[in-house]
Design a protein that fits this description.
Layout (H helix, E strand, L loop, with lengths): L1 H23 L16 E2 L2 E2 L2 H22 L2 H6 L1 H9 L2 E2 L6 H21 L8 E5 L3 E3 L6 E4 H11 L1 H31 L7 H22 L5 H15 L5 H9 L9 H31 L19 E2 H26 L22 H12 L4 E2 L3 E2 H18 L1 H4 L21 H20 L10 H26 L15 H9 L9
Antiparallel strand pairs: 1-2, 3-7, 4-5, 4-6, 8-9
Amino acid sequence: MFRRVFNRVEAAGKVAVSETVGHAGVAPGRVSTPRSTVRTRENGHSGDLSDVLSDLRNDSRLTARQRRDNQSWFEERLGISGLNKHYGRKAFPVHSTYFFGEISTFAFLILIITGILLAFVYIPSDTIVGYVPSSGPDEIAPNGYQYPQAYASILAIESNTVLALLRNVHHWASHLFIFAIVLHTFRIFFQGTYRKPRELNWIVGVVLLVLAIANAFFGYSLPFDAYSIAATSIGVNLARAVPWIGDWAAALVFGDSSYPAAGSLGRLYALHIFVIPLLLSAAIAAHLIILVKTKHSQPSYAKKIAEPGRVLGVPLFPQQAVLGIQLLFLTLGGLFLLSSFVPIHTVEAYGPPGSVLAEVKPEWYFMWIYGLLRILPSFNLFGIIDNNFVAGLLFPGIAFGLLALAPFLDRTNRGRGLRRVEYQEPPSQAPVRTTIGVFSLAYVSILFVAAYYDHPFSLTIGQTWLITLGVPLILAIGTYALMKAREPKGIARFDPHGYYDEEDMADAERSERLPRAAD
């Protein structure tokens, strides 16, 4: 097209020069012709410049029409190229620890898919039915066992190889979901990237962690074997321990203040597959939207390379998308391998409701609460507050509350005129924050030991309390001393902040954190 334009303009220019020269009578033997009457053809094109421009306009209309015709059906209606322009080029930093968030998202997707498949077979009912191993639950099954319908449906799932594998994948995916969120949370905490402008996203992440743990607990109840009933009963007792509204709270969540009761299983099933997953989906969507708005934090090395205000990384499409797809398949393959070689316990291992059980130990993400429940002495203050409420609800409530408020408790994130924290801060530059994180991890880990203080460790309550308080304190002191010794000074300190924008500069000047600009 550009070549045609050049040829036409060139042809028009030649004709115009010839007309001018002939009209002036410079060329001998040339007949002078009025400009308005001259029409010359060269290579089939009009010699008048106005005709050339007219042809160009027609060609441009034709080209635009052809471009519209060649657009895909979806592009014409949805403008997909616009989405790629605005979001497809979003940069994602490449760092191994940044994949924890993506792994948790993939684990959630796997939970949704496997949960839907299992829901086609599982029956959330405590109605007693006959069960014949070869045919599954049936209300009129002759010569069968009498089991609750939920328990019988789990037996049917476990008797099918594919369904049993899916149940195992669902189980391990829930562990991976919580574990990846925990790693993601502590990575952000130790590197200090929960500060401005990511305070809100940090709170959303803590809510995600709480919802993930809560949904795992509600999933406990669904097999309706002796183990799940014993574990769920602990939750009912904790709910009943809430001062003044305990019975009402237990009835709201579990269907009655005693468990199991009529309708309890259906309510827990609705919470597990509808209510909590919807809240999780909304929280994940909010987390991603805020991430796009505030931009991703970056590794410390990026500050020397990236332009001011830019994120150093690979674009969302196609590079990050390819990495994400690879990570998804690695996650899925790892879960299937784990489910194949490390199967979970079957419901037959504990038996139907009413079977006699030894002491039930919860999963690892509840073990820290269970450990404190075991070693905390029994008490009841004024008939209102007892040890179950303090260890089972108040203690984890304070822990998650302080975790959510970390951006506002951090003294380096207070006041006006703060710059955006864009880069990972080395833990050695924040001895207090690092010490608090190590103490918290150590304390939670030692509570795992407290859950088994009598067997297999054969410890007394006094020894357990000494270990529970002493070990985290010693580690905290050692961590603080080490961080202070390695803390960089002066110009050797790494500045994790980004560059000032106009709004930040104005806030800084108003708060006198920066020298005022010259008039």
